[in-house]
Design a protein that fits this description.
homodimer, alpha/beta, Rossmann fold, 7-stranded mixed beta sheet, DNA-binding, transcription regulation (chains A, B), Peripla_BP_I (chains A, B), HTH_LacI (chains A, B), DNA binding (chains A, B)
Chain lengths: 372, 372
DNA sequence: TTCTTCACTGCAAACCTTTGCAGCAACCGG
DNA sequence: CCGGTTGCTGCAAAGGTTTGCAGTGAAGAA
């Protein structure tokens, strides 16, 4: 039913190669011929078959985006930013969700491999070794993880966690807890290390609870543990867990921030909607999406050798940069002074969130260019 | 670099067709040969090129899912359900986001057309005529919209809106407002019609405000209008708008539900997290995702004719069913009795949500099978 | 022994497109 | 009038796979 290039050629009385050129190199064909061909194509509803084109050009003009959990509101801004950036470069993004399952992750990248020019691996749960292996099959940019030899875009959650801990120390807290995220998460490691160091150097004690599923339920399930541990302030792996925890504490009759302070990570839209509004470490998710697409497509314009070897596909790994994006602590209403010293009952509604305008572009390249 | 079928054939000393059969019809090849071929394939890291396979079989084993806005928490459960169902049938789902833009929508389905076996059009914003047109290019199942002659899965928001209005009437409200959704939304029409009828037959007045963007901001922007209109209860197009409205009213010093009652639609996870918890119309989004995939793939097993015509691709339209899924009103804390009669200050925390277990499968086929 | 059947494998066409090369006509400068 | 350039078009190979058909050898039946 769908018209092929041959149908158009027949209808317009030219060779198929002329039709092909009409679409992929219009300047090579006579204007008169061109309009005739275009008219026929229009009439027949012809659209070039991208799969067939990909077979020979080696370019699909698609990129894959693999993420752990679409339902986590952390991802949509990243997805949208990546889509927008890709669209500018005439690429499409296919999103796939792995349900936090490393096996599904691997299967997906294999399924995607031949249908896309590269994949963005976002917050991968699989091992570094496996990532390196799949990166030999298809160009990969890793988001939210550092793996040597591969292009990565990371968010400096270590710095964020440190800022959060220091904020809590400044409020007088000395008994702190960290709600760990999922096993296999690089972010989790970074936070743990940085938070631990910050707490130690502030003379405070940090209890680590976890690993846990990085969801609201994961957070609320920890409420009793948090209560029993006697801590007065908590840093959660992400906002969802923080919100879940607040919810769970509420059920136990523990108030936030009067009795316990809670800090999240991500600054998802939701964190502005809950009561109390969440103090959190804002991560530049949109910038991460844009940057990752740029890195994957940086060699876009390079010509592809015909015949000889396979395509020097997009994202040729001759220079692999590693980019670290900055995070920022946004102070809202879920943190307050240590219970003992608080002016009871009143939450300081004072200065409100002291946050700079949306980071967007202040991307800091720490890794620079690394030869591989 | 990536190994092709030819490399494997050479390595294992057989013809490429044997290699091909080893993967797509193992019973046709000698067990000994098979293990040898598999071993070589394993060693070379060979994976069949799905694009090339699709070129000849006419089946990509991919399905496209086009949605208006990934950031809307309404969609993720649907996406996940569709992915799960597809995986069972050995299909992959590619998700794409249109940013609520009808033009992007059309472009996307064209881009997807040749790379998938069918597309799920979820809450489309384009015209019915356009949908019918693209459905001639690629099999389509429409979600959240009724278009005659095409398979559709809908949620009965009309019934939901009616139930919501009746709930509000029961609480004594007579001045009602409906916060409209985006232009081009079928759901919007259904709600408007049903809510209008229910209000009329209850002797109440219904003001329609809109159209509006179906987001939290869209809701909060309407706060002053709602105040000035003097209504005492509001039904919003979706939960996001409802939550935004509550937020906006809060800034104006108007309390929910004491001063104004608010009902949302969708029952997104978030609606259980805000304070007050949202009264809302629960929609069976997961079931919708599953059902849509099933409908698209129902002719999966049919053999494809070689040569002759093009593939009788998936979702052959010989019988096109239209399925209507039921919705359910979930009463929580954002609705209360008419201000005049209320016991001031206390929100009835009483019976809590009186909701049946997650609907899941109670899917009701209203349309039955329709010849096309 | 001869014929049939069977299990397996090879051959080659087909899917739809891109692209290097060659052909061809018209035009230009000399 | 000739050699060269320019602008356009056709030819055919290539890309990786599937699959109908035909061929092979061996086993079984008559």
């Amino acid at each position: 039913m769908p018209a092929t290039i041959r149908d158009v050629a027949r209808a317009s009385g030219v060779h198929i190669s002329t039709v092909s050129r009409t679409f992929s190199a219009p300047h090579l064909v006579n204007p008169e011929t061109r309009v005739r061909v275009l008219a026929c194509a229009e009439e027949l509803g012809y659209r070039p078959n991208r799969a067939a084109r990909a077979l020979i050009t080696g370019r699909t003009h698609n990129i894959g985006l693999i993420i752990a959990d679409i339902a986590n509101p952390f991802f949509p801004p990243l997805i949208k930013a990546a889509e927008g950036q890709a669209r500018h470069r005439d690429y499409h993004v296919f999103v796939a969700d792995t349900n936090e399952d490393p096996a599904a992750e691997e299967e997906l990248v294999h399924a995607l491999a031949k249908q896309v020019d590269g994949v963005l691996l976002c917050s991968p749960r699989m091992s570094n070794a496996l990532i390196e292996q799949v990166s030999r099959e298809v160009p990969v940019v890793v988001i939210n993880r550092q793996v040597t030899g591969l292009p990565c875009v990371m968010m400096d959650v270590g710095q964020g966690a440190r800022a959060a801990i220091e904020h809590l120390l400044g409020l007088g807290h000395r008994q702190l807890a960290l709600l760990g995220g999922p096993r296999g998460s690089w972010t989790n490691q970074q936070m743990r290390r940085a938070a631990g160091a910050a707490a130690r150097s502030g003379g405070a004690e940090l209890t680590v609870l976890g690993p846990n599923p990085p969801t609201e339920t994961g957070g609320s399930a920890l409420a009793t543990q948090v209560r029993d541990s006697g801590v007065t302030a908590v840093l959660a792996y992400n906002d969802l867990m923080a919100i879940g925890l607040i919810e769970g504490l509420d059920h136990l009759g523990i108030r936030v921030p009067q009795d316990v302070s809670v800090v999240g990570v991500d600054d998802i839209a939701l964190s502005r909607l809950t009561r109390p509004k969440l103090t959190t470490v804002a991560t530049p998710t949109a910038a991460a999406g844009r940057t990752a697409v740029d890195m994957l497509l940086q060699h876009d314009s390079e010509l592809r050798p015909r015949g000889g070897g396979r395509a020097a596909a997009v994202g040729d790994r001759r220079t692999t940069a590693q980019v670290m994006l900055q995070t920022e602590l946004v102070i809202r209403d879920s943190t307050g002074p240590l219970p003992g010293r608080s002016r009871p009952g009143s939450v300081p509604d004072g200065p409100g969130p002291h946050r700079l305008a949306d980071p967007g572009s202040p991307t800091v390249t720490t890794g620079g260019v690394v030869a591989s």
